[in-house]
Amino acid sequence: MDVLEFAVEKALELGASYAEARFEEKNGTSLAIKNGNPEGLQVLADRGIGVRVLVDGGMGFASTNVLTRESVSEAVRKAVKLARAASKVRNKPIRFSDEDFHRVSYKVKMKKDFRDVSPEEKLELLKKIEEEVKATGVNVPMRYLMYSDQLWKKEILTSEGAYVKSKIPRVSVTYNLVVFENGQMEQAPFVQRAFSGGLELIERDEPWKWAVKDAQALKRLIYEGKRPPEGKIDLVISPEVAGIAVHESVGHPYEADRIFGREAAQAGESFVKPNMLGERIGSEVVTVIDDPTIPNSWGFYLYDDEGVKARPRYLIRDGIITEFLTNREYAYKLGQRSNASARAINYNREPIVRMANTYLAPGDYSFEELIEDVKLGVYMVSFNEWNIDDRRYQQRYIGREAYLIENGELKHPVRRPILEITTRALWSSVDAVGKEVEFYPGTCGKGEPGQGVPVWMGGAHARLREVPLRRP
Amino acid sequence: MFELNEFILKKAEELGFGDVVVLGYETDRRQVRFANNEITVAKNWHERKVELFVELEKRIASTTITELSEENIERTLKTLLANMKGMAPKEDYYGIAEGPFEYRNIPETFDRAIVELDEPNDYVETAINTALSEGAKRVAGVLYTDHDRVYLTTSNGVEAFDEGTGIEISVRAFVGDLESGHGTNSARVLKRFDPESAGRKAGEIAHMARDPVQGPEGRFDVIFDPLAFANLLSYMSFMTSAYAAEAGFSFLVNKLGQKVASEIVTIKDVGNMPNGYGSRKFDDEGVPTRETTIIEKGTFKTFLLNTSLARKYGTETTANAGLIMPHAWNIVLEPGDYSKAELFSEVKRGIYITNVWYTRFQNYVTGDFSTIPRDGIFLIENGELRPIRNIRVSDNLQRILEGIKALGKESHHIHWWEVSTPVSTPYVLVEDVGITRATK
Hints:
The complex is a heterodimer of chains A (472) and B (440). Chain A is of the alpha+beta class and 472 residues long.
């Protein structure tokens, strides 16, 4: 706290009109097993301070991991100098929206504190995946399993009176499985289970069950998989597929910094324009929410990195674009209040507009009701390859586990059904949404240098009518 | 910093660790980001840290120490020791390289002018103005300057130092919503830095890309701009690591000695490339970096290795440690003998792709992937270029390598957000590339 106060005061003395100092400390361990061999232990202990300032309408940022007064003072001096020089290459000064600020402290509790658990016990979680996968009898010659835990401590102080102290533990298990049967190979890569909280969340989630399900589904795909139907057919997507679709084609294009072109160079622009608020983008059953406050979620936070209180953000309500994701800079441009989307992955990164936990809100259909009147369709359960253009309009998702739907019933697995579609067509095709919401973790990439932030993606099942399905 | 390294090594040896590697870093990095023809933020990073690798009876661990007091160092080593004692050994661990080694300076990797550069904003303005003069309306991008010092000490007699600098720019220019172009320039010494060329290329392509029409789908001969092909080779570089292959992330698994590319394809990793953005004198075990041929005239010759993985497979290290995961330094696709004009005249009807992003794999072991062209895309017909949009490359990485028909004679060194491992590549002509598009 002392060093943060020192940094903010120093910045104001040097001429900043706004100053924000953020201390972050991350401690944790990670372990990997590759094809049965423990790959070693990695211990993370990182901390430092980042300072962001506005001077004459220019923005500067500097960070250091040397926490002496001299070093912090030097960082502040550099941030101010950079901001002042940057202000000369601007058409309009940067301004921030007015907000209510708080002095708060919050933390996520761990029932089973991972700091009290030895690495060998954590390794047992991965060994359990090895054993359970082996017990299926499926031939999985390549297995890469990783466990990771981190305790994130953060303190933010701004010259406008925000002070937020937080402590968020995060645990995750990730695996890559390559199934080789009958001379064919299928893969479930980078599958992750992840939460904010203690080790009990991983134990309760039983990642080995997910791995077993994947290994068995891939084996079945190899032996029983047939070509998927092609052409305009109905497609039912799982919460996992709905999750990647809302993340890519709703969350990203609604980021205000993209909409205004700040991300144009690397992570891209957006097909969405400021005047599209209130415009229809999907059918009436489509509502998409981004909510950082979901307890134990991978994208959890209660205050963003500009000190603004978080709340659920309704990006699409009943098919209508209702809200963009904003930080203070872009809330000001829109004449709004910030909805607390400013996140930085570490002390050495600037806060930028990010998602947290984005999901397709539930409707009122059971899964059986979703498929019962589908004459010919596909149920896409999980995906591997996916991508989207930099305006977030032309996208593609390829099924990993997927099944034929015929006359209202699930039939045999189908290989690599491909949905390649525009954003507007995708969300306009949805005619029914399931009742149950599920979430899947991911790392959302954006920023330069890159900032991979933890997010959840998910939602309910959804039925898409007459979408163009292709096959390889 | 070497005194600190020595202290860590001494304490680690006192505690009974076997192999120990101490990599100290002092880095100063500066960034200027710009968009809409103005600077959005300018940043400065200063960092001092030690990466530490330790081995205890075939158990291995690593950590990064950023609080470099003697108390914290001792505490960290004791924590590692306590945690490692109960762990299962890594049975396929075979040690680190035996030093000492002799090192040679790599030309054009350090320039005091970059260290002393007070204000890089002029370069940003040059790039923006050049792009605008080519017809762009909006220009966005990022400029970096780097100054890195690396201090390496190992329990096997290595003490090595390297100091490097760099300056680079990435420029994206827009005419309208759908018309854009991209140019980059990366150099290790100031006199080689050319922000104007990056701005010019971005502006030229954006201007050429005006009023694009929906592109076709099917199989086409495709000319990949160096920026676009560097993306594919950068993804491939990860797959050349023996670690990635063991973990199931490589289409090169079980293909040593086999033909995996067209006969005109030779791909190398060059750790000691003059003016290479990834060049360094030594790898993380202290082995002097070198040139390693990965694919020679289409045949896959070797994975990239560190000492432990090399011993596991009965061969020599390729000087690509990464103690846990070997990695490439600078990937080089050897150029061919076509001028750019000759290359384009080879294509009667095809597509010119200037940039790609969002490369994702359906299956890493088979190599099936897709990637999205961004910025200008052009249909080539009878020597003319017509702008198109909204297509996707959907193919297989090995098939792309096998389909390489001709290579330009000029090599371009590419490093940016989408190409994290630097790549030197010419213009590349690939036949029968799979192209798809959304139909709704």
